[in-house]
Amino acid sequence: MRRDPAKVGNAAHLWEGKLLSEHLRLHYGLRLGVRQCQRIFGQMGFRLRKPRPQVAQSDPVKVDILRAVRLKLPPYSTTASRRCSNATTPGRQSKLLQEGD
């Protein structure tokens, strides 16, 4: 169990009760319930730690393209320049006011 589950033929990244139960049944013919496997983990000093979801980092170029498509504007090179230039451009402000009417 100290080895990665993928190295013993499983697709999962971490060992868990359900995976261990299935692994023991398939490879050794040993039938243990999921809860029993969880207890075994605890007796061996393991603890349940679910992986935290990671927030994906957005690609600034793709964000600009998406915003340009939504606002029907030409894409800018960075999102920071878009934020600054949209607020201060008089032509852009009047265009937004006309579109809102």
What is the element layout, followed by pairings?
Elements: H1 17-28, H2 34-43, H3 60-71, H4 79-88, H5 90-100
Helix pairs in contact: 1-2
Mean pLDDT: 75
Radius of gyration: 27 Å
Structural class: mainly alpha
Terminal CA distance reads 65 Å
Percent in strands: under 5%
Q: How many beta strands in the DSSP annotation?
A: 0
Element pattern in H and E:
HHHHH
List segments where confidence is low: pLDDT < 50 over at least 5 consecutive residues.
none
Which outline best applies?
Answer: elongated
The helicity comes to 40-55%
The tally of helices reads 5
How many strands, what sense, and barrel or not for the largest sheet? none
Features:
elongated
Q: Would you kindly provide a written description of the structure presented here, covering whatever features stand out?
A:
- The protein is mainly α.
- Among the domains are: 5-43, no CATH class; 57-81, no CATH class.
- It has five helices and no strands.
- The chain is elongated and about 65 Å long.
- The model has no long low-confidence stretch (mean pLDDT 75).
Give a brief rundown of this model.
The chain has helices at 17-28, 34-43, 60-71, 79-88, 90-100.
